[in-house]
Amino acid sequence: MTAAIDPAQMLRAGQAILATQPFSVLLGAELHSFTPGHCELHVPITDKIRQQHGFVHGGVVSYAADNALTYAGGSLLGGAAVTSEFKINYVRPAIGERLIARAHAVHTGSSQAVCRCDVFVLTQGVEKLCAVAQGTIARLPAAKTS
Amino acid sequence: MTAAIDPAQMLRAGQAILATQPFSVLLGAELHSFTPGHCELHVPITDKIRQQHGFVHGGVVSYAADNALTYAGGSLLGGAAVTSEFKINYVRPAIGERLIARAHAVHTGSSQAVCRCDVFVLTQGVEKLCAVAQGTIARLPAAKTS
Amino acid sequence: MTAAIDPAQMLRAGQAILATQPFSVLLGAELHSFTPGHCELHVPITDKIRQQHGFVHGGVVSYAADNALTYAGGSLLGGAAVTSEFKINYVRPAIGERLIARAHAVHTGSSQAVCRCDVFVLTQGVEKLCAVAQGTIARLPAAKTS
Amino acid sequence: MTAAIDPAQMLRAGQAILATQPFSVLLGAELHSFTPGHCELHVPITDKIRQQHGFVHGGVVSYAADNALTYAGGSLLGGAAVTSEFKINYVRPAIGERLIARAHAVHTGSSQAVCRCDVFVLTQGVEKLCAVAQGTIARLPAAKTS
Known about the structure:
By secondary structure, chain A is of the alpha+beta class.
């Protein structure tokens, strides 16, 4: 039904979108993988994204989950997509060098996709799970994106 | 059981904590109200917190909800507190001058509080609801905060 | 845009729908109030809906929340509606005579409504909060209801 | 740290608990698998658990998710456990012969476990995903179980 998607081109297209999100640029977010229904988004950990105990602020972890969910779901919906809702459980303080959010779609309908995301923190080459999320991604009506 | 809390002092104490969160400082977040079980947190809308369609990035809206939930719940738990989990529904694109997150506790137990939050966007003096959230705030064991 | 709704007629219509839900009949659920955007659903507490500790089973509490959310949201969407997703926090064991779930819509769009619900347990005339929920109600395409 | 667990004995113990839940008995729920951190719970689909469109009522699907989450998390916490909170996305109407809820723990702390659950509907030998859930299971203080 669709022409074959060139993986490298899809990743570059995803990275180009990320570069147009000022907030993602502010956080230094990087799209490392982007295939239909899947996404891997990284956020390098720097001092400016911490909270008062030195952990990455939960808001950054939820940003990473939210954005990864949107990419994973949006890749299957066609056109612009937004997160309608999501839920996140923080399971471990995020201390380390890099957040890695991996999301995938578990079900795709005509206008919505339900996705899950695992957020890991990378420390000295070891990944540890720090949050899990689940949410709904909705295709944005064309009129709402402009 | 507790001495009377001076409202002005409580607000200043909350603002002092916010000032120690580098990520909250990065976003320019402001604590406007902080009483037992309640919190009002603002985030001025600037270009750097937008996504590619010009709306405030969902990650910033979820940050505001998350942090407001933590203040509302933490004020009733004593000591440091963190958000264990929360859920957010985005109901309207956030376009305007300022995000206003108002959270309150709906139930407080010995070590956890369940809280709700409404996030509004302020435009030309009018507030519009842009997201609603619900989550669990947990008292952090002393050992985990240092 | 709509003709005035007769409140008594709306309640009877809602009760008639409830009577066509075998599971609601099995639980003895009762619709006590049903107005645009609002609903109050009761479940009398009997032995058959308990778990092993004598509390009402969480599954019954979540049923009450889910169904009340659907009524509250569905009343504003027109036509048949279903719960797309919801989240529930249990805050107190449900011990008493009756569950009372009160739901209301917080935002209504063209095809979805976001709603909240409080579930109380009634004991000797006193209501105590036992759960809070939040979720999305979607209008069901006509083809899916038959 | 723990003695080896006999799998058959663990399953029988789980089934014995299920048999003491009147609501689970009412629904005819069956525990098919129960190992540390994992659970598979079935609910045979009969007319009494449907809603007005002939689908299994969402409340039954959420019961299956909730109970499976509790088993999966509780198996790792020791002692009695309850679901503190969970979130569920319904992705397909449940029409078929049997609900199958499979849950597993994704993280276990000292007093809580975060778990995920997939609920399938079985029709003529084929399983289809109908809901996904995520939630927190908490060990119940001994005093609250009696």
